[in-house]
Structures are given as structure tokens and as C-alpha cells.
Amino acid sequence: MPRSNSNRSGIDMADADTTDEKCESPQNLTVRIFALPDVTTMREEEYLLLLDFVTDECRQRAARFIRHEDRYRCVAGEVLARYAVSRFSGQRDASWRTGKNKFGKPYLLESPVHFNVSHSGKWVLCAVDHTEIGVDVEVRRRTDPAVAERFFSTPERHMLAAVNVPEETRSLFFRLWVLKESYIKAIGRGLDCPLDSFACLPDGTDGAAGLVRFDDTLPEAAVRWFTLDKEHCGAVCCFHAVEGVEIITVPADDLSAFVTGKP
Ligand SMILES: CC(C)(COP(=O)(O)OP(=O)(O)OC[C@H]1O[C@@H](n2cnc3c(N)ncnc32)[C@H](O)[C@@H]1OP(=O)(O)O)[C@@H](O)C(=O)NCCC(=O)NCCS
Q: Which residues span the domain enclosing 109?
């Protein structure tokens, strides 16, 4: 197993669990998210090390990006997923053969472990669990009322309209965004799922949120939001009760050690 590091400094995480035990127990109600910060400032030699380790498909996708940050996020996402699954299962690079569902969600072919990757701005996240899972991270940029109108459901728009302070509006806007994304990623449908067919409503400041489904065929799920830093927020969704979310910060050095097999 690679050297592990669970430095959570800089994480403003509601309900963050500070333990670093193995994560393999199906009874464990803490959801684990492995998080690589500062992916955009990774050194080129680190990137090339990671590039050697990923699948041909990932390498080809990375090559199509013009901006180096996009290449870094793409490649680091696959390596982080392999790292996270290995740590979760306690087996290095545990049976890494993946497929994709018809909406593009990657899954492991020979393992009961589920994972989901998200990347935005400086962060790459990989949530791992024993049931289907979805995770989303977003950079908190400018809010756009037209986007809320187009993507949010009626209760979400009402919740947003009730806030008058610009900074709170921005926080809520992105909280709603990541919560919705985490749900459509957990169910594996992505934008095939109509975004007005459900609402994710943040409840207070502790990361809790409620899910309301306007379509009976959509599954019940647990959704939680969290703040990574001043500019980035995220959310996770899974299909069992959740007592907490643990963000496990993974330094770039750990990924390099993982791919080279060095302790
Ligand atoms: C593709 C989608 C699943 C996520 O897109 P995204 O937020 O741009 O990207 P993220 O970084 O969070 O996730 C990308 C990763 O999710 C995974 N993924 C791809 N399709 C997926 C699916 N159907 N379900 C779950 N995960 C999926 C892949 O691992 C992908 O990584 P890769 O791009 O390196 O291959 C989809 O939800 C989408 O296109 N969203 C666009 C954003 C939007 O308009 N949102 C509306 C506001 S709520």
C-alpha cells in the first residue's frame, strides 16, 4: 500500500470525521472522499509519471485537451480513483478493470467497490463506497439567475429567492448545484435525469440536505454538501444513511509514490 496521509488542514468541513481507519466496513456510515488539492500546480514530471500509469483510453482523452490543467485533472482523476479504491479495499490497485454505463458512468468490473470522480478548479475528488455513489465539486464563480431558472426546480428557486445577501446567494447557488450533480451522478444518469424532477434542499449549515423527488421512479438517497476552501464546494450522494463525510486530503507526492510502488 502507498504511504497514506490524511492531512485535513484547510478543509472547512461540516461533520468531518477525523479518524483515519480502513474504510472497508459495509456498516460504516461515514462516506470517504479522497481529495487531491492544487492539481493545477502539479509539476510536469509528476504528471508524466501519472500518465504512464493510466489506461490508454484516459491517455487519449487527456491528449485531446488544449489546456494543461484539463489534462492534469483528467489523468489525476483516474490515478486518484485507483488510489482511493486501493485504500478503501485494502488491496493495492484492486482489480482495476472498468466499464461504463450507457450514460458514461465508470464502474469496476470485478469488485463490489463503487467510486465516482469529480474535478473542478484546483480539486480532484474521488468518493468511494460499498454502494453506488456520486460526488461533485465546483468552483464558486459568479451566479447566474438564468442558470437557476433553467436548471433548478421550483423549491430550489424559491429557496434561492429568499436569500438577499449576495455572498449567501452565491454559497446557496453552488450548494444547490453540487447537490443536484451529486444525485444525478450517484444514480448514474447524468443530465439524462431531468433536473426539475427532484430538489435537493440544504438544511442549515452542518452539511445536511433533504431530497424531494417529483418522479416516483427516482430512488431515495442521502445527500450532503461540504466546503473545501473559499472557492470550492462539493457534495456527495449515496444510498444508505450517512452519519458524516470524511475528506481525506491526498498530497500529489502520495499519488507519485502509489504509481511507482515506492513506500
Ligand atoms: C457528465 C456529468 C455526469 C458530470 O459532469 P461535470 O460536473 O462537468 O464533471 P465532473 O468533474 O463532476 O465529473 C466528471 C466525471 O464523472 C464521471 N461520469 C461520467 N459520466 C457519468 C455519469 N453518467 N454518472 C456519474 N458519473 C459520471 C466520470 O468519471 C467523469 O470523469 P472524466 O470526465 O475524467 O471522465 C453530467 O452531470 C454533466 O454533464 N453535467 C454538466 C453540468 C451541468 O450543466 N449541471 C447542471 C446544474 S445542476
A: 30-135+242-260
